[in-house]
TrEMBL record:
One of its GO terms (molecular function) is alkaline phosphatase activity. This is Alkaline phosphatase D family protein. The keyword Repressor does not apply. It comes from the Bacteria. It comes from Algoriphagus sediminis.
């Protein structure tokens, strides 16, 4: 009896240890991944959907210029969105993961468009159709295309806030290709500002992503940016600093370049990051220098998309600028609080 007992007991211990090990392994939380991008010509080659699919992302976020509409003909605009939907690899991604998005100017319908674009209401509904937004969603019923979404499961939640920087935006003047500041003008409009303040009162998500078609932090370049409306930029930064949201991150597109930026002051002693991802089908034709004191690393003028990796196990967010064949052009790691 004793001779038979010990081998059986030993085997039971091994099986029990193996079972415990598998239970521990299965309890590990897999990294959560969101891909982002902008500036996508629906009738040009789109080589980046393959590496995006290979990344096995959990969601895709459009950051503007999702197609190039540039029209007041709504049938033409819809046909361009339809053409994008027929791109095989994009269609494959759309069948696998949730798609979120906000517009910039070309998909809005007018280059550098503002609140005076006459077809903005009709254009909004067409974009929401493209994004498969439910008919009863709040953004269907109100003015503007702004929205918010909770992504993830359980305690590991990401809030995605998509700001509409076109529908309510006041007019800018331009001299010699450079925009002049509109000291009193608005980007978001009164109702969207009130909505945003309410959204930023939610402290449950571990990370809050705030997306805008145009860049938020840069002040030095001469193109469209939040700094063209100085009061609006200060208001946004003050609102973020006053809120108790955890780990805010800014996202933007528009520029046909990619860059990582970090803003630091008394309000953001550990830094506020902005990730610009642009473009999916075209970038600067020639690489030039552009002043940006907030840039971390290099300006990237290659086809690119952004990959945000949420490593919940290690309380870390990793952002990668990626390109064709999955090449990583830049990376930034942020410790989550």
């Amino acid at each position: 009896m004793k001779t038979a007992y010990y081998p059986v007991l030993f085997l039971a211990l091994i099986i029990g240890f193996s079972s415990c090990k598998k239970t521990e392994e299965s309890a590990q939380v897999e990294p959560f991944k969101i891909a982002i991008g902008s500036c996508n010509k629906h009738d040009e080659p789109q080589p980046l959907w393959n590496p995006i699919l290979a990344d096995s992302v959990d969601a895709w976020v459009w950051l503007g210029d999702n197609i190039y509409g540039d029209t007041e003909d709504m049938d033409l605009l819809r046909s361009k969105y339809d053409a994008q939907d027929e791109i095989e690899k994009y269609s494959q991604l759309k069948s696998q993961v949730p798609i979120y998005g906000i517009w910039d100017d070309h998909d809005y319908g007018r280059n550098d468009g503002d609140k005076n674009y006459p077809k903005k209401s009709e254009s909004k509904q067409i974009m929401l159709d493209f994004l498969d937004v439910p008919e009863d969603a709040p953004e269907r019923k109100r003015e503007g295309a702004y929205s918010s979404h909770l992504i993830g499961e359980g305690e590991n939640l990401v809030k995605l806030i998509l700001l509409d920087a076109r529908y309510f935006r006041d007019t800018l003047s331009r001299i010699d290709g450079a925009y002049l500041p509109n000291e009193q003008g608005t980007i978001l409009g009164e109702e969207q500002w009130a909505w945003l303040e309410k959204e930023l009162s939610d402290t449950k998500p571990k990370v809050t992503l705030i997306a805008s078609g145009i860049q938020i932090l840069p002040t030095q370049h001469r193109f469209e940016k939040w700094a063209n409306f100085p009061q609006e930029r200060v208001k946004l930064l003050d609102l973020l600093a006053a809120s108790e949201v955890r780990n805010p991150i800014l996202l933007s597109g528009d520029r046909h370049i990619a860059e990582i930026m970090k803003y630091e002051d008394d309000r953001f002693p550990e830094g506020l990051f902005e990730f610009t991802s642009s473009g999916l089908t075209h970038t600067w034709s020639t690489v030039g220098e552009e002043a940006n004191d907030l840039r971390e690393g290099d300006l990237i003028a290659k086809l690119n998309y952004g990959l945000i990796i949420f490593d919940w196990e290690n309380s870390t967010l990793v952002y990668q600028v990626k390109g064709e064949n999955g090449n990583v052009y830049a990376s930034q790691s942020i410790s989550l609080k």
